[in-house]
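Data deposition worksheet. Section B asks for the primary sequence of the deposited chain exactly as it was used as input, without tags or linkers unless they were present during the calculation. Section C holds the resulting structure in token form. Section D is free text for depositor observations; keep each observation to a single sentence. Incomplete worksheets are returned to the depositor.
Section A, Depositor: J.P.
Section B:
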Amino acid sequence: MTELERNSKEYKYFLSIYKKMAKRLLELQTEQGHWAMSLLAAEYYPTPETSGTAFFTYGLASGINQGILDHKNYEPTVRKAWNALCRYVTHEGMLGYVQPIGAEPGDACPDKTEVYVTGAFLYAGDEVFKLYSK
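Section C:
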């Protein structure tokens, strides 16, 4: 969205979708702070999952930082998600509980990681840092 003109039809279209999705994510966050592998069937996948959580944390924190999302309503969700992500970093510095790459949810465990999640975690961390350094 940062590449689109704010008054364009396309920006308004994507902004509407983004805000709807962000609002729904508030409702779907688990008590532990992460989002389940299957957003609408969390009871079937109770283990933490960090790749989606990192991407959602990035997206919500970025929205707050850009003034798109209300700080008061979204910041507690970002804080809870970031704290959850940090709990899933091992002593060796690996972010665990990453679901396998595939077409459906799979098993995530403390020592399961994927290369792409490192980037998602760093993107989230960058936006969280910006959020709290203001």
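Section D:
The chain has a mean pLDDT of 94.
The two ends are 22 Å apart (CA to CA).
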